[in-house]
TrEMBL record:
<feature type="domain" description="HIT">
    <location>
        <begin position="19"/>
        <end position="128"/>
    </location>
</feature>
<dbReference type="GO" id="GO:0003824">
    <property type="term" value="F:catalytic activity"/>
</dbReference>
<dbReference type="InterPro" id="IPR011146">
    <property type="entry name" value="HIT-like"/>
</dbReference>
<dbReference type="InterPro" id="IPR019808">
    <property type="entry name" value="Histidine_triad_CS"/>
</dbReference>
<dbReference type="Pfam" id="PF01230">
    <property type="entry name" value="HIT"/>
</dbReference>
<feature type="short sequence motif" description="Histidine triad motif">
    <location>
        <begin position="112"/>
        <end position="116"/>
    </location>
</feature>
<feature type="active site" description="Tele-AMP-histidine intermediate">
    <location>
        <position position="114"/>
    </location>
</feature>
<dbReference type="InterPro" id="IPR001310">
    <property type="entry name" value="Histidine_triad_HIT"/>
</dbReference>
<protein>
    <submittedName>
        <fullName>Histidine triad nucleotide-binding protein 1-like</fullName>
    </submittedName>
</protein>
<dbReference type="InterPro" id="IPR036265">
    <property type="entry name" value="HIT-like_sf"/>
</dbReference>
Length: 128
């Protein structure tokens, strides 16, 4: 399953409206766990762990490497939101992993910045 995500990333491109924009605009249904004026959190449709959530900014930043210095507050908000959601689900007791994929070699398959929250199983190291 993970190799399929890498394969998708090899063919993904940053042009046009993304799947995440359609989810944010509620054109495509998703199970929202949290939302505020800056971001949304929903379940990944292709989970890589028993709990796999995505923290997605409403602002369409294609990649972390393309974020502006002016996005500093938003980027911090994404991490604080990820932490709060993970703590709210009790993962402070067992642990969790946050992942941001960037670009083709980083296995980014949707060009809209997002933070993965992975939990519910023992993570492996090294991750890549």
């Amino acid at each position: 399953m993970a190799n399929r995500e890498v394969e998708k990333a090899q063919h993904a491109h940053p042009e046009g409206e993304t799947l995440f924009e359609k989810i944010i605009n509620k054109e495509i249904p998703a199970e929202f766990v949290y939302e505020d004026e800056q971001c949304v959190v929903f379940h990944d449709v292709n989970p890589q762990a028993p709990t796999h959530l995505l923290v997605v900014p409403r602002k369409p930043i294609p990649q972390l490497s393309k974020a502006d210095d002016g996005d500093q507050d938003l980027l911090g908000h994404l991490l604080i939101t990820a932490r709060n959601v993970a703590l709210g689900k009790g993962f402070d007791r067992t642990g969790f992993r946050l992942v941001i994929n960037d670009g083709r070699h980083g296995a980014q398959s949707v060009y809209h910045l997002h933070v993965h929250i992975l939990a519910g199983r023992q993570m492996k190291w090294p991750p890549g």
